[in-house]
Design a protein that fits this description.
- 47% of the residues are buried.
- The longest helix is centred in the C-terminal third of the chain and has 28 residues.
- The protein is built from twelve helices and 16 strands.
- The protein is α/β, with parallel strands linked by helices and 416 residues long.
- The chain folds into two domains: 152 residues, Aspartate Aminotransferase, domain 1 (Alpha-Beta Complex), CATH 3.90.1150.10; 228 residues, Type I PLP-dependent aspartate aminotransferase-like (Major domain) (Aspartate Aminotransferase, domain 2).
- Helix 5 runs parallel beside helix 9 and helix 10 packs parallel to helix 12.
- The strands form three sheets. Strands 2, 3, 4, 5, 8, 9, 10 and 11 form an eight-stranded mixed sheet that branches. A six-stranded mixed sheet has the order 6-7-12-13-16-15, covered by helices on one side. A two-stranded parallel sheet has the order 1-14.
- A hairpin with a 3-residue loop joins strand 6 and strand 7.
Length: 416
């Protein structure tokens, strides 16, 4: 069967499909599997207990159960959740916003699909606009979201070398030009795949640059502040009317609820509501109803601060120790893990492409992601993109330890 241009574009091989295929394959496997590739959050016992208690509360309330499962929500998402979140952000940060500034989407991925194609692409009359990614590597899931080709243009970072085989990417502001065809600037904070957290100064400079060019700054905050707070460095939440702040309930422990959150000026929220209505009539209310009380009371912030962040801080510290033990004698660097669920490893002079290393690891039951997927919009050759791997440290510690040990073995088996 021959598909349309749309069909051909969205059925081709993508990093997102490879990631989710690996995840499904790993979960269905009968053999030993070390799932270091996916983005699933850890199953934190305290979080699961709270969510289970909320499920019982909802089940015992006919009104809440009806809101969760029995009725369509408004096109912008469940109204009571949006009102509660607006009040939380006003209370905690003094942001001047209301429910009209908040829309829900069917997960962050579909939210970015709607946002990017709303802001950029074909404008008619031969005019096309693009999204600028000021720092690569960047989230692989962006790569194939455009209805048109070449929706993204990206810039290389500057690289700061650090002690203990660590390094850090920074926005290269000297090389960051904003061309006339740029519709928005977008960056993740914390970064996926790197765990990089932009400094407050970098965020302020990007926000000022966006304002100066009368375009929005899109901040992908799926792992950040105020929740789930998987941030291990100093960082201040940022929003103003020129910022589109994207959050999610996935990484507090609700990835299957597919609840993306967009905080933006009302005209953008209204446009997203229209898109939601056309694409899906309404988004799911499951995550919103489950999390509503956590948001109303502010417990979602204390849970993030006191349970989720310390859990991942301990896990990443242990994973770093295993990396240094298992890769001793190899040529490697690890991006300083400042947030998110990942370690980003760089192997300068790797004798094979990272995609080949990925295949070798997969053959031994270790699932990672090769680095080349994480450079959407970057033009020109750069050996660095084929010298990196992303590892998740969120799954059970023994699988992470064993997977990292096998990585060390495979690196030593490569031709010199």
């Amino acid at each position: 069967m021959e598909f349309s241009t749309f069909g051909k574009r969205f059925t081709r091989h993508t990093g997102a499909r490879e990631l989710m295929d690996d995840l499904g394959e790993a979960m269905a496997s009968d053999g030993p599997v070390m799932m270091l590739g996916g983005g699933n959050p850890a199953h934190i016992p305290q979080v699961l207990e709270i969510l289970a208690a909320r499920l019982h509360e909802v089940a015992d309330s006919p009104r809440d159960l009806r809101r969760m499962l029995g009725d369509y929500a408004a096109p912008a998402g469940e109204p009571r959740f949006r009102a509660a979140l607006a009040q939380l952000l006003q209370r905690e940060y003094g942001w001047e916003l209301g429910p009209e500034n908040i829309a829900l989407t069917g997960g962050s991925q579909s939210g970015f699909f709607l946002l990017f194609n709303l802001l950029a692409g074909d404008f008619g009359g031969g005019e096309r606009r693009r999204i600028l990614l000021p720092l690569t590597p960047e989230y692989a899931g962006y790569s194939d979201l455009g209805l048109t080709e070449d929706l993204f243009v990206a810039r290389r970072p500057s690289i700061e070398e650090l002690p203990e085989r660590q390094f850090k990417y920074h926005v290269d502001f000297d090389g960051l030009d904003v061309a006339d065809d740029i519709a928005a600037i977008c960056v993740s904070r914390p970064g996926n795949p790197t765990g990089n957290v932009l400094t407050d100064e970098e965020v302020s400079r990007l926000a000022a640059l966006a304002r100066a060019h009368d375009i929005p700054l899109v901040l992908d905050n799926a792992y950040g502040l105020p929740f789930p707070q998987i941030v291990f460095s100093e960082a201040t939440p940022y929003w103003d009317e020129n910022v589109i702040l994207c959050m999610s309930l996935s990484k507090i422990g609700l990835p299957a609820a597919r609840t993306g959150i967009v905080v933006a000026r009302p005209e953008i929220i209204d446009a997203l509501a229209s898109l939601n209505a056309v694409v899906s009539l309404a988004v799911s209310s499951v995550g919103a109803v489950l999390a509503q009380k956590l948001v109303e009371t502010g417990e979602i912030i204390s849970l993030s601060r006191d349970v989720i962040r310390p859990f991942y801080a301990q896990r990443v510290s242990q994973a770093l120790t295993w990396v240094h033990e298992s890769l001793a004698g190899c040529e490697y660097f690890v991006h300083r893990p400042e947030g998110a669920l990942f370690l980003w490893l760089w192997f300068p002079g790797l004798p094979v492409r990272s995609e080949e290393l990925y295949r070798r690891l997969k053959a031994r039951g270790v699932y990672v992601l090769p680095g080349h997927h994480f450079f959407p919009g970057l033009q020109g050759k750069w050996a660095h993109r084929d010298e990196c791997l992303r590892l998740s440290y969120a799954q059970d510690p023994e699988s992470v330890r064993r997977g990292i040990a096998i990585l060390g073995e495979e690196l030593r088996r490569l031709p010199s």
